[in-house]
Amino acid sequence: MERFIVREAELRDLPRIIEIMAEDDLGKEREIYTQPMAQCYVDAFNNITGDRNSILLVICEEDNMIGSLQITFTQYLSHRGGIRATIENVHIAESSRNKGAGTVLMNYAVELAKKKNCTIVQLTSNKTRTDAHRFYRRLGFKNTHEGMKLSLEKQKPLS
After folding, report:
1. CA within 20 to 30 Å of 136's CA: 61, 71, 89, 143, which one?
2. pLDDT tens digits, 63-102
């Protein structure tokens, strides 16, 4: 039996996904893990899983869900009309890091991108996540662009 199983996320996975996101330094500042789950997370989950161009993946070790990521496929005019896969929100539970789960999850996502005939797989990572940057470089990702963001978010109360 495989040590890790990657599958599409189900609504029952959502509390654990948010719990894992909220356990790291950045997540502690922007996520709130509560039971019952805040409706904003349920709404986002439903929007993502209802979008044919987005997939939420989870990775499990035995029956324990230990990580997740989102992959979104975008059609571009550049690269001769190529499709780009964007990987976001890669999170592995702190207790499961450095055991191969992240590599398995990322390789699964890259294989999905190949099956969709993507020309590029891209991701962004917060500048403070230096361990994650080393991990992505080890997988073959390169720093080729300077990213910029304009935040339009006002901290709104969770509902």
Report:
1. 61
2. 899 999 999 999 999 888 899 999 999 999 999 999 999 9
Report the alpha-carbon distance of residue 66 to residue 58 in Å, rounded. Answer: 7
Residue 92 is inside which H or E element, if any? strand 83-92
Q: pLDDT, tens digit, for every residue of 6-16?
A: 999 999 999 99
Q: In terms of C-beta distances under 8 Å and separation of at least 24 residues, what long-range contacts does 42-46 make, across chains too?
A: 42/11, 42/14, 45/9, 45/11, 45/14, 46/11
**What pLDDT, on a 0 to 100 scale, did the predictor assign at position 14?**
97
102's tokens: 């992240």
For the beta carbon of residue 22, count every other beta carbon within 10 angstroms: 17
CA-nearest of 53, 66, 18, 69 to 39 is 18
> Contact at 8 Å (CB) between 61 and 70?
no
